[in-house]
Amino acid sequence: AEISRYEQANTSNDSSFNSNPWMGNIYPNPFSDFTNVEYYLPLDCSKAELDVFDILGNRLDIYPLNVKGIQTTIKISSKGYSGGIYICTLIADGNKVGWKKLLILK
Questions:
Q1: Nearest to residue 37, comparing CAs of 86, 73, 6, 79?
Q2: Among candidates 18, 6, 7, which has minimal Cα distance to 43?
Q3: In the chain, which ranges are E strands?
Q4: For the purposes of burial, counting CB atoms within 10 Å of the CB of 76, is it exposed (0-12), middle (13-18) or buried (19 or more)?
Q5: Which residues pair with 57 in a beta bridge?
Q6: How far apart are the first and last CA of the chain?
Q7: What is the residue-level pLDDT of the chain in tens, covering all 106 positions?
Q8: Could you give the C-alpha distances from 36 to 8, 16, 18, 101, in angstroms and in order?
Q9: Among 21, 30, 49, 59, which has the minimal tally of Cβ within 10 Å of its Cβ?
C-alpha cells in the first residue's frame, strides 16, 4: 500500500485561538522523508489550502485543508521532490496567511 503524500492530525482543542487563520511551525525542517506543518483555521473559513512552490515560484502541490476550529498539523512527504529549498504557503479564503521555507535533504 502506498503512503499518502499527506495526512492531517487533530492535535489540540484549545479555545484560546482567535478567529484568524495562522501557520505555525514546520518540523522537522530540514527533512528527508516527511515533515509536519502546524496550522489553525477558524470554523467560518470556507476554503483553505497549503501550497508548495519551488524557488522559481512554480506551484508544485496543493493540499486541501479541511480541519477547522482546532490547532492541527498536516504531514507532507518529500516523495517526488529533489533536494533543495521550497516555499510552503497557507491560503485561507483566497488570502495568503503565511509562508515558510522547506529544506529537503536527499
A1: 73
A2: 18
A3: 6-12, 22-27, 34-40, 48-54, 59-64, 71-77, 84-92, 95-104
A4: buried
A5: none
A6: 23
A7: 344 455 555 555 554 456 899 999 999 999 999 999 999 999 999 999 999 999 999 999 999 999 999 999 999 999 999 999 999 999 999 999 999 999 999 8
A8: 9, 22, 22, 13
A9: 59
